[in-house]
Amino acid sequence: MSVIGCGHLGIPHAAAMAELGHEVIGVDVDQAKVDRLNAGECPIYETGLPELLARHTTSGRLRFTTSISEAAEFADLHFIGVGTPIDADGRSYDTGQVYGAIRQLAPHLDRPCTIVGKSTVTVGTTAQVTVLAQRLAPVGNRVDVVWNPEFLREGHAVEDTLRPDRLIAGVTTAEGEKAIRAVYAPILDAGVPLFVTDPQTAELAKGAANTFLGLKISYANALADMCEAAGGDVDQIVDILGIDPRIGSGGMRPGIGYGGGCLPKDIRAFTASARQLGADEAADLLRSAEKINESRTAGALDLITRTLGDHPLKGAKVTVWGANDVRESPALALARALQEAGATVIVHDPQAIATAVNRNPELDYTDDLSASIDGADVVVLATEWLEYQQADPHALVARPASPLLVDCRTAVDPEPWRLAGWKVRQLGRPGK
Fold it and tell me: What is this structure's pTM?
């Protein structure tokens, strides 16, 4: 098989397919990236991916190329894993890379094969891709197109590919379904359910899943605002709601909003799809969730200002723990807002600094946790990295002049920090 597009989706997928026993060739236009991948070097951070990549590039089961004709000659099944960023209108998917990949691949398809779309796309894309591929391919309508959306969590792509909670295949032919069942046979044999649907259901399912997660996060943030005003405890409310099997607490954690490469763009695009389909009330509901998410930076700034008390934010030294996934990172958005408000900001992250520096060079960074808080007026916890959750507050207490911790992710147990002498404020929790 081939995997076309070697980024946050394509590299883990290619490595995982090799782990399942398939012979895999990855395709990317970036020669430098291809060279690194063939050397077993991983250009992105995903748990377990460097080991998987090194193992299968060494075994010869996995290799990478810039030649799409080589991939067409090699493979009978082609995964499309290129990026679909948000379009210039800020609401829709830019599917240019998907169609570009098809235009490059299809003229080389001279025998029956299956194209499997992994990228997140607007409903109706599979039908258009099928028409394009079959028109351009020498083999014509013997090219089958299936849509098989991914449901990957940031940092868990390998685990979620090898041990997913479900698989979806949007198919139009028996041959397409047969190809998917063959590819994922070890996973299906382990009991993972496969939902065989029409393509438009498969296309909608990914956007629906991420949008619901965004709605849960936005609802938890709305509850946190109410708790801030009333003196309630949002964590207890989430626990109370989560005990209800119809609701569940997974993914319902208040904070500074959702970010990353999927949720923001998927919710925008799904909202736009609802509007285009004439489902205006659904679009209004989804847009409300977006507005709550967009307000989180201002809410976090207000909490930090109140925690500082008489100390003005302008001129304050602020440490931000966590950059997280730097694609639309709410942590970095908060860091920028703090800097624009006049604070001196330094950002620490155990994984994302190299990429964050490229995207936000105006901020200062460090990879030393203890040094990051030297002289800080306030430490802002902006992500849920275990390094922060497991940090020893007693070992860190002497570093800032006045130890203040603003936990914008409700990620730590505040009591050990308070016992170590820190003043802790958390979104939606009573302050002490």
Answer: 0.78
